[in-house]
Amino acid sequence: MTKLKAGDEIRIIAPSRSLAIIKGEQRRIAEERLSKMGFAVTFGENSFHHDEFFSNSIKDRIADLHEAFKDPNVKGIISAAGGYNANQLLGYLDFDLIRSNPKVFCGYGDTTALSLAIYKKTGMITYSGPDFSSFGMKSYFDYTVKHFSKAIMSQEEFELEPSGMWNNESWILEDEQREMHENPGYNAMCAGEGEGVIIAGSLSGINSLQGTEYMPSLSNSILFLEENEEMHPPAFDRGLQSLLQHHGSSGLKGLVIGRFQKESGMTDYALHKIIESKKELQRLPVISNANFGHVHPFATIPIGARCSMRINNNAAIKISSH
């Protein structure tokens, strides 16, 4: 598994929305924070360009992604932010190039489509973790940095621990507008034990790959699912059911669900009813309210690594380095 170390160069690219949407102060803080972690930060040539959708052409986005993998000085690649159109790039990716130049590749939300496709086509472990924009948060970021370092810089197994506090607001808000909440910990929805390969990302991003050559197998996997505020309970119910009907899902070993944003309208009661209705999840361990996805702070999850989970009187999630 490729790892980062102090002194390595990280390239920021914009496979979905442009870096132009990240305001100057937030961009400065993000670059400064990564620099203090020991990384040299560079930017894709086209990453600040944008069209009327605040994205960029497929040609320019692919050029930045391929250049980042070609450049021998670049050891890690982080997406600028999420969006809606990363899957436009799938048919243009040079997977032979990527396979021959393995690097840390990290992002979440819309970047899910790229991370899973790269893992499926090359076997390279990718990471569902913070975007460049995430590193621009002024405070409440220690947990995110700690788990980013554990996943991306260490070869040791680590436990996915609940954070002490959490906040629901979008990354674009100033810290003064954020309301912090005490974290009650995991919601152990179904008891049991499981072990398998991690498949992680947003539910909509994973489902965008169904029926394509880029969809990884769910057999013998621990599935980590998250979503943003646009995914209300009936939509999550429908999307989860579709995913569980995907071929290979019968070999699923466990499910970890990231904490939902309040705007989604998801409640513990609604989520319990959704999970109870899925015969495919019977006798499988299921945990919700994990620090993963669109609610801050959040952990970095290595796609393709091994994971074990145990739920009895308490809950534990352990992630291997390979």
Explain what you see.
The chain has 322 residues and is α/β, with parallel strands linked by helices. The chain folds into 2 domains: 9-136, Murein tetrapeptidase LD-carboxypeptidase, N-terminal domain (Rossmann fold); 159-319, Glucose Oxidase, domain 1 (3-Layer(bba) Sandwich). It has 8 helices and 16 strands. Strand 10 (192-202), helix 6 (203-207) and strand 11 (221-226) form a beta-alpha-beta unit.
Order of strands, widest sheet: 6-16-15-10-11-12-13-9
Class of secondary structure makeup: alpha/beta
Biggest sheet details: 8 strands, mixed
Instruction: Spell the H/E element sequence.
Output: EHEHEHEHEHEEEEEHEHEHEEEE
Q: What is the architecture of the largest domain at the second tier of CATH?
A: 3-Layer(bba) Sandwich
Please specify the SSE layout and strand pairing.
Layout (H helix, E strand, L loop, with lengths): L8 E5 L10 H13 L3 E4 L14 H13 L3 E6 L15 H6 L3 E4 L4 H11 L3 E3 L13 H12 L4 E2 L5 E3 L12 E3 L4 E4 L1 E11 H5 L13 E6 L6 H12 L9 E5 L9 H9 L9 E5 L10 E3 L2 E6 L3 E5 L3
Parallel strand pairs: 1-2, 1-3, 3-4, 4-5, 10-11, 11-12, 12-13
Antiparallel strand pairs: 5-14, 6-16, 7-8, 9-13, 10-15, 15-16
